[in-house]
Amino acid sequence: MRKSKAVSAWSLVAASALVLSACSGGDSGSTDPNGSSTDIKSMATGKAQNGENFKLADTPGYEGTVTVGIDDGYSGYNNDTPDTNTSYNTYILTAVLAGADVLDGNNKVLLNNDVFDSWEVTSKSPQTVVYKIKPNVKWSDNEAFDCDDMYLSWLAHSGKAKTSDGKQAFLAASTTGYQLINEATCKDDLTFETKYTEPYLDYKGLFNSTAIMPAHIVEKNSGVADITKLTPTSDAAQLAKAGDFWTNGFKGFKAENMPASGPYKITAFDANQKAVTLEKNPNWIGGKGGPSKIVVKAMEDTKAMATALQNGEIDIAASTQPDATAANTMKGLAAQGITYGSASQLTFEHIDLNYKRMFKDKDLRKAFFEVVNRQEITDKLLKEVQADATPLNSIVFMPGEQGFKDLYSSKAGLGAEAAAKTLTDAGWVKGGDGIFAKNGQRASFKISHNQNTRRQQTVEIIISQAKAAGIEITDDQDANFLKGGRLAASDYDAALFGWSAAPFKAEQKSIYITRVDDSSQNYQGLSNKTIDESFEAAVKATDEAVQLENYQKADQAIADEYATLPLFQTPSMWAFKGIDRTYMQSYNGVLWNVGEWEQKK
At the top level of its lineage, which domain of life is listed (predicted)? Predict the structure, then answer.
């Protein structure tokens, strides 16, 4: 599932792994043009990682509090509903909730061997996947983590459970993959079997950590006696009760309803201070390392985050919002024992154009693309963070991935004159105020985004570029644009944000295919038959070559729609002190292996 970055939504919800560029400003190692050192790259793997399996190394724990700064705040324990689906929840929940997979710093998909013994394809026709949970895995409230929790995850994400009025009982941000499972069965408490109607090559991306909510909590609060007895064809009233709590009952923080299945549990949430406190889960059966307490604070101003690190107010600055000034500050702190890192993420910054408003006009979409000089944006805002940063020219693929093609250099940044000609040829007329208009509609709109300095700077650059072409743009900065529901409600003209994805291409389907219900993440109203059919064919493919071909067709069709303008692949930047090693995982943030951190000697 691609997550929206209050920077998702790649709004923190997703097939080849991206090759990362390791960057660090640490005090050891040879440097590269990004001001980095090779020691950071070695931190991208877990200490006990072995082959296709991940376990937290059983390192000595240590007393004390580690304070982490991230870009935006926590909003919900269930991160898989449309209004909570952000990377910043994922960055916290990765240490709190356990799933079938773990992603290391190289985006390698690994079995979470602390909690699962295996995930095995036992049949290809029909595709059958069997998950084996380890014995004695417990939630922090002492209830068993077992097959009931896996079953609830399928039921909630399947898109099959409906209320009496035909609406989704469980409002999941995405149903991709889960909707292909037509049989989900608890063979026993520790064995969960799934059978698919069609092949699904990205099955390892399902039942991840944020997808598995505690079934016993849903049962207690909804009155459903046994969640495994509830099927998509069960009594609609029962489905509605379970679905309502799953969708709405996990907002904010309520300790008794939000136990942990991972190495840490949430013990406090201060909404005013935008701070979450984590302490060790006493029932965690994996490695016992890491600090005794972690405080994660939202710090929207990246420069202030860097200053807080410099002043000793935080121990880790972990930002997915690259900022040149902040990067230079952190790179200059080696004498204080601070190590700096930067790496390309499976995240891209982009602008979505809303088909439900004035951008239903394709010529206006085309003119907007033509007027935006992405190279200027990249040069001014990213080069100090990552010297080799360039504009991104694909939506479906990242540079270096098999299937990547440059689809946007010929469409974007062609200049004010080209944009003005496109509008003129389409019947738009420049008025006395210098702004084009057609049928009483001026070429005037807002670019909306969350509170973010780099995004504000991005819009300022675009405003200047567009003005020369007779297009008027204003900056609409709203701190709650992503988590407050405006994005999901399509309340914008153009939306500037980032998508963050795990390395499973199938999860992109939810964003771009025609929206048929509220579980879709296609907020801009894009609807194109080629895109729909290509994603469907790619997701169902059993042959990797056929899969790749169809993802490329979808990518080309999105570009030809002038629907969403990719700006750049977003580099992360982070810095730390007092800890032996941290690595900012592209999808899960720095806490992905917090249970094996050691105090720096």
Answer: Bacteria
Rounded average pLDDT over 239-260: 96
Of the pLDDT bands very low, low, confident and very high (cuts 50, 70, 90), residue 6 is very low
The answer to whether residues 87 and 500 touch, using CB atoms and an 8 Å cutoff, is yes
| Two structure tokens written together for 571 | 């580099």
pLDDT category of residue 201 using cuts at 50, 70 and 90:
confident
d(CA 390, CA 383): 9
Distance, in Å, from the CA atom of 361 to the CA atom of 422, rounded to the nearest integer, reads 12
Lookup: tokens for 491: 């309340």
Neighbour order of strands in the sheet with 101-103? 53-54, 109-112, 101-103
- 8 A C-beta contact, residue 280 and residue 290: yes
**Dihedral sign from CA coordinates of 243, 244, 247, 253:** negative
Amino acid (1-letter code) at residue 529: K
Give the span between the Cα atoms of 46 and 58, in whole angstroms: 11
The pTM score is 0.76
What single letter denotes the amino acid at residue 141?
Answer: D
- C-alpha 76/C-alpha 370 separation (Å) is 39
330-357 per-position pLDDT tens digit? 999 999 999 999 888 888 899 999 999 9
CA 193 to chain centre: 27
Higher pLDDT: 504 or 454? It is: 454
> Can you give the length of the chain in residues?
601
Distance CA 202, CA 9 (A): 20
Taking the CA of residue 276 as centre, how many other CA atoms within 13 Å lie in the half-sphere pointing to its CB?
A: 28
Contact by Cβ (8 Å): 2, 10? yes
Task: Give helix 453-467 / helix 362-371 axis angle, nearest 10°.
Answer: 100
Alpha helices (H) along 79-235: 87-93, 147-157, 215-222
